[in-house]
Amino acid sequence: MIVQTALQAAGFACVTVAAVLAARALLARGPAEPVLHWTRAGFLLLAGAMVTGAWRTLELTGPQRWGLLTWLIFFAVLHVHRVPAFKGRPALAAGLAGWALAAAAWFWR
């Protein structure tokens, strides 16, 4: 459980950095590439947290549903960012929405 909690905290820290960079990029029209790197790192850490926590229970109760939904949103953001219509500002906005959901899932518990 300690490993899962550490991975969750590190994953949420990474997506928080990505959200701050995304907000800065949206406001100042800055580069979006660092946002993608931080989002990818957070996604991998959250995936590790899901895997290490899977041994406890296989049912999706409240916080686990939110965590899975958050993971799926970041999965979508990372995999469709190459679509021309989704590049740039829409991808940054989706990353911010994913962060808002991650924050809600973190405090929902």
Report on the structure:
- The protein has 109 residues and is mainly alpha-helical.
- It has helices spanning 2-28, 33-53, 62-80, 89-108.
- It is elongated and about 40 Å long.
- The chain has one domain (2-108): Four Helix Bundle (Hemerythrin (Met), subunit A) (Up-down Bundle).
Search tags:
single chain, 109 residues, Four Helix Bundle (Hemerythrin (Met), subunit A), mainly alpha
Q: Count structural domains.
A: 1
Gross morphology? elongated
Poorly predicted spans: none
Q: What proportion of the residues form beta strands (DSSP E)?
A: under 5%
**What is the C-alpha radius of gyration, as a whole number of Å?**
14 Å
CATH fold-type name: Four Helix Bundle (Hemerythrin (Met), subunit A)
Helix content percent band: over 70%
The overall pLDDT, averaged over residues, is 78
State the secondary-structure class.
Answer: mainly alpha
Per CATH, the architecture is: Up-down Bundle
Question: Could you give a short account of the major beta sheet?
Answer: none
Count of DSSP-assigned helices: 4
Question: What separation lies between the terminal Cα atoms?
Answer: 15 Å
Q: How many DSSP-defined strands?
A: 0
CATH class category: Mainly Alpha
